[in-house]
């Protein structure tokens, strides 16, 4: 959709703007097997309803780690919350667009609303030329711009936590407390359900989060 806007230099800039972590700056011990334990269907995209949207754990791992580095998500408690949200909202990374009920412009791996997608896109300097070339009121075009590049697609959950939630929410997740996770859910505009909690508990276990009441 945006191919007529892309020059090789800009494409390279956008693809690498959220750089992968370097060996000297690890932010997580997360590996592919842990990611599969959190999002079991991410072991394969063979049966994905929309194959072009699906990413396996192997494909998702690098962009997720990149988002942790970019937004300084360093504690297991924060990482568990973000991983569980992305896995739950995208059905184990199978979706990047809201198909059910099909809200136009809603998507990325945490199924972010159109209003926040625009804020997120505007926070990324490399996207400025692209935003200038489209009508930002076109929520589908803004979403297309974000999901076209995998690192941006997987970076929205970390961006939202660090830019839209207050420090008390972040501190609560860092502590690993149940109250901290509840406060985070309130910040992202949802509440705890058994299905959502199952993802969070798998993430807590995979990352070894020490929880408290």
From TrEMBL:
Keywords for this protein: Signal
SUPFAM superfamilies in the cross-refs: Lysozyme-like
Signal sequence bounds: 1-19
Statement: the UniProt record of this protein carries the keyword Signal: yes
Name of the protein in question: Uncharacterized protein
């Amino acid at each position: 959709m945006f191919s007529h806007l892309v020059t090789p230099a800009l494409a390279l800039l956008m693809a690498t703007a959220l750089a992968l972590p370097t060996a000297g700056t690890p932010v997580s011990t997360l590996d592919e097997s842990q990611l599969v334990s959190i999002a079991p269907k991410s072991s394969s995209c063979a049966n994905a309803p929309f194959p072009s949207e699906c990413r396996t754990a192997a494909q998702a791992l690098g962009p997720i780690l990149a988002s942790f580095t970019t937004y300084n998500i360093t504690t297991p408690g924060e990482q568990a919350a973000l991983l569980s949200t992305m896995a739950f909202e995208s059905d184990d990374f199978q979706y990047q667009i809201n198909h059910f009920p099909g809200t136009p412009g809603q998507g990325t791996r945490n199924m972010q609303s159109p209003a926040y997608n625009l804020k997120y896109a505007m926070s990324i300097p490399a996207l400025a030329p692209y935003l200038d070339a489209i009508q930002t009121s076109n929520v589908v075009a803004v979403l297309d711009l974000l999901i076209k590049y995998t690192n941006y697609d997987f970076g929205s959950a970390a961006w939202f936590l660090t830019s839209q939630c207050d420090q008390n929410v972040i501190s609560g997740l860092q502590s690993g407390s149940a109250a901290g996770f509840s406060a985070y859910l309130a910040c992202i505009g949802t509440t705890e359900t058994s299905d959502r909690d199952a993802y969070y508990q798998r993430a807590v276990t995979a990352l070894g989060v020490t929880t408290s009441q």
